[in-house]
Amino acid sequence: MNPFIGAPNKQKSILGIGNALIDVLIHISDDAVLKKFGLPKGSMTLVDATLSEEIKKETKGSTRNIQTGGSAANTIHGISRLGGQCGYIGKISDDELGNFYLEDFKKNRINTHFFFSETGTGHATGLISPDSERTFGTYLGAAMELTAEEMIPDIFRNYGIMHIEGYLVQNHALIEAAMKTAHENGLLISIDMASFNIVAANLDFLQHIVREYVDIVFANEEEAMSFTGKQPEKALSEIAEMCSIAVVKLGAHGSLIKSGNRIIRIEAIPAKSVDTTGAGDIYASGFLYALAENLDLEVAGKIGSLLAGNVVEVVGAKIPEETWDSLLPLIENLKTK
Question: What dotted CATH number matches 9-18+70-120+146-336?
Fold first, then answer.
């Protein structure tokens, strides 16, 4: 069952908060560029504007595409496409990239709570290796200037769940202020651990906020290891002792969910992986949407898995429109089983 069944109706609306970034996704022929710029494969590394431009110059002959990104933003986009009620907090600039970002959210009927900065809109350069693993060099720009003082209660009051990305952990005051305000306003709190190196560098703080505020934790295998020092099954149990629902994502091997004494194993759907960008984000879309709709945890995991299996077959973190057309009837079937 869903442990939140019976919660107030406002629970159906989900608020995301994260780094508002434009994703610049680039296919690389080998991993030499990762070594040249000191980017650990499969991780997210913060870079300054100069290094970001150097990476782009080094890969200027490679295939690339541009879309709105940021982990929590990707999750909120997915919830919107599922028909869920949702909103997003982030900071952008009144520049070309920022306007692109804002228009994309309006087009997708997402309530926006944007703050603006003179600093340019942030962007993440995603380098996609031949094995489909993605590595990000991220220039935060305006996104880095989102502050604890901007986490005002009025933003949170009409939502039931807040989903926050672990990438915000570079600002401890911000992430704790957002969680404290959400908690005081009765929201359930969900966090995605974001990246194994981010977890390792902020372990004590992350463990503190999970124990203090968080209801739902999403982590992939590497993040769960960084967070607990344990393999997936044992990591799942340890995380579940800190919160109401723990989810450990295992890529092609599916996912594990634990709530109380109940453990659920979700199989991955067959997929030809092209780019893993956004797989965890869109899994969270399906899972949180299902929780908001008062569906069982197993159904939530299956919807998440279905979405993740489809996004890895395309470049970028967004499922194409024509794929959504075929997915939505399948999701309706899962909801009624």
Answer: 3.40.1190.20
